[in-house]
Amino acid sequence: MYKNISTRFIETRVVGVTFENRQAVVALLTEREQVFLIREPDNAFDSNAVKVQRWDHQQFGYLNRELAKILAPRMDRYGRPVKATVTTLIGGNNPGSRLGVLIKFYLPE
After folding, report:
1. What is the pLDDT of residues 60-92, one digit of tens each?
2. H/E segment holding residue 12
3. For domain 14-90, which CATH number applies: 3.30.70.2330, 3.55.40.20, 1.10.8.60, 3.40.50.300?
4. Three-class SS of residue 100?
């Protein structure tokens, strides 16, 4: 899916939003809110991990593993967080239903 990224613009779903009380953070998000992609090279499960967090450092998920593998080297060269925007909040229409998030961002050079 992401093997040949021909554009610098990416829109993707944030994964891992149901772990570690992240649903509470997702519930605080608003569409068009600016969020940040942060490299997490010391992640025990994936050295390419890219976490997604709010301005106040509340993490609400990760980029999927396939995209993170492509993005991690670029982010390492870029050397700072990548700004992203919440485009869509998914779910939450029924009591107890899980929430999801779509974000968009531009790949660093």
Report:
1. 999 999 999 999 999 999 999 999 999 999 987
2. strand 9-13
3. 3.30.70.2330
4. strand
